[in-house]
Specification:
By secondary structure, this protein is mostly beta strands. It contains no helices and 17 strands.
Length: 207
């Protein structure tokens, strides 16, 4: 993901990496600045550091000076649920906020047993997220997520993308102009039709 805070472009890269201190992987990050006018790099890549020491399936998006990352927090013990967390980059201090779990009203378990998040930021600065709910046999969802503190992670406009199951690897993208809509795509198996993986998509009009 790329942001343009303080008239300097910054490329952010996140990935899942083995963490020797935990039995599961963590979410790592590094960044590098570049000149917005020339496109030339400014300095070297930052050191690698953890966004969260225990995390999986990270996804990142940036627009303007806003950069957010979403990831799955794995269960700490057998039988415990996975859940999706989000964190925000602070360009002034070049640090990440403390991750917050996604929550919807009084429900802080809305993403229990969910996985494979993806994230996008529209031209109005709204953060959109999609994920797959394993508890409902692979139902795909999308929602608007607050990126402000202290409401980071609060959801609004939570919807089932399509009444379907067995969805995998959802992706989401927002148009470049204010009022543009949002697209989501995912793949799924259709064993009853003798099909392998197919690609489905859905569009939410902007407002």
């Amino acid at each position: 993901a790329t942001d343009s805070a303080t008239n300097t472009g910054t490329v952010h890269v996140v990935w899942e990496e083995e963490n020797a201190e935990f039995i599961v992987n963590g979410v790592a990050h590094r960044y590098r600045n570049f000149n917005l006018q020339t496109g030339n790099w400014k300095g070297d890549w930052s050191a690698v550091h953890w966004i969260f020491e225990s995390g999986q399936d990270p996804a990142i998006a940036g627009r303007g000076d806003l950069v957010v990352v979403a990831f799955v927090q794995p269960p700490w013990e057998a039988g415990a649920p996975t859940e999706i967390n989000v964190a925000r980059w602070a360009p002034g201090t070049q640090t990440w906020s403390e991750p917050s779990r996604l929550r919807w009203g009084q429900k802080d378990n809305v993403t229990f047993y969910c996985k494979q998040p993806d994230v996008a930021i529209d031209a109005l600065g709204r953060v959109w997220m999609t994920w797959v709910d394993e508890a409902s046999d692979g139902q795909p969802y999308w929602a608007i997520v607050s990126a402000e503190l202290p409401t980071l992670g609060e959801l609004s406009s939570v919807d089932i993308i399509l009444d379907t199951v067995h969805a995998q690897s959802p992706r989401i993208a927002a148009g470049p102009e204010a009022g543009d809509g949002v697209w989501s795509t995912w793949n799924k198996d259709v064993p009853e039709l003798g099909e392998g993986e197919i690609i489905r998509s859905a569009f939410k009009p902007g407002n």
